[in-house]
Design a protein that fits this description.
This protein is an alpha/beta fold. The protein is 41% helix and 16% strand. The chain binds NADPH dihydro-nicotinamide-adenine-dinucleotide phosphate.
Length: 304
């Protein structure tokens, strides 16, 4: 049986970051402006520390300013809100990201809503959520944005096709991945089904789709015989599973060895959607910087 084309998120994100770095240097030389990203980490969650370290590294690599604010877990909410107010007013800061999850005594939604919407590079502020739903120009959450870039590149650029009219199923309805992904697909004129834990006959919903976006957080849940032959599969899931020898391995939400025999194209885990998330964070920071300074650069538009 033929094997699906592997959609290479490592290569795509590296090209994206190179393009962003080139624009950052142009803006610096032409306008004396350096895009700046502020990342706020509260507490010592080990996974969050790794994410924040990687974001800092990539931000600096592409020539942007990186401002890190690490606060102890017992920091009061008022103190965090005060820091965000300072970042909102700071002209050197174009993007603000508060690493989630926050400690239990903080109201994450209140914190998100304290960020200026035009600096909200995570795209979680209700203003940006509304812009995405209503079709306006806000900032788009990074993981769905990266997933959409891979999808567009495969279907529209490499295959010379069109997304319009294709049937897409998004499995998962979180605010971070599932819902914004569904809105992006609607924008592209796909016919979109959003499935979740209460969906009846999930395999049948998946089988009907030309495009499958899996964002469930359940290791290898979507099986190969759920996939329509030739479909494009975007696996957003990142799950660490234990192996019998005591080691661990990263797997997606799709059973890759089965799906790769049936799909037309599929993102691997790792190396698919994962690396796109930070690249899109940098992209959103560049977009925010361009809009704040009224610079007309192609990267400030959604699909340049
Ligand atoms: P959430 O836990 O917030 O949402 C999971 C969604 O999947 C929910 O809508 C839930 O339904 C649905 N779901 C759970 N179990 C089932 C089931 N058995 N059948 C059908 N639907 C189900 O997860 P996220 O959206 O935050 O993340 C999803 C995955 O993406 C995770 O693996 C996560 O690690 C990964 N991820 C990867 C990123 C990246 O950078 N590549 C970034 C963010 C996330 P219901 O609403 O009914 O409960």
């Amino acid at each position: 049986m033929t094997q699906a084309k592997l959609i290479d998120g490592n290569a795509f994100s590296a090209t994206l970051r190179d393009g962003i770095a080139a624009r950052v240097h142009e803006i610096r030389d032409a306008h004396r402006i350096v895009p700046g990203l502020a990342v706020v980490l509260v507490g010592e969650d080990p996974a969050s520390q790794v994410y924040v370290r990687n974001k800092h590294k990539r931000t600096v690599e592409c020539g942007m300013n990186s401002f890190e604010h690490k606060l102890p877990a017992e920091t009061g909410e008022a103190e965090l809100l005060n820091l965000i107010k300072g970042l909102n007013d700071d002209p050197a800061v174009h993007g603000i990201l508060v690493q989630l999850p926050l400690p239990g005594h903080m109201d994450a939604q209140k914190v998100i809503e304290a960020i200026r919407p035009d600096k909200d590079v995570d795209g979680f502020h209700p203003w940006n959520v509304g812009k995405l739903a209503a079709g306006g120009e806000g900032l788009i959450p990074c993981t769905p944005l990266g997933s959409m870039m891979l999808l567009r590149d495969w279907i529209c650029v490499q295959s010379g096709g069109s997304l319009a009219g294709l049937k897409a199923v998004v499995v998962g309805r979180s605010n971070i991945v599932g819902k914004p992904m569904a809105h992006l697909l609607i924008r592209e004129s796909c016919t979109v089904t959003v499935a979740h834990s209460r969906t009846r006959d999930l395999p049948a919903e998946v089988r009907a789709a030309d495009i499958v976006v899996a964002a469930v957080g359940q290791p290898e849940m979507l099986r190969g015989d759920w996939i329509r032959p030739g479909a494009t599969v975007i696996d957003v899931g990142i799950n660490r599973i234990a192996l019998p020898d005591g080691k661990t391995r990263l797997v997606g939400d799709v059973r890759f060895d089965e799906a790769v025999q049936v799909a037309g194209a599929i993102t691997p885990v790792p190396g698919g959607v994962g690396p796109m998330t930070i690249a899109c964070l940098l992209r959103n920071t560049l977009t925010a910087c361009a809009r704040l300074h009224r610079l007309d650069i192609p990267e400030a538009r959604p699909w340049a």
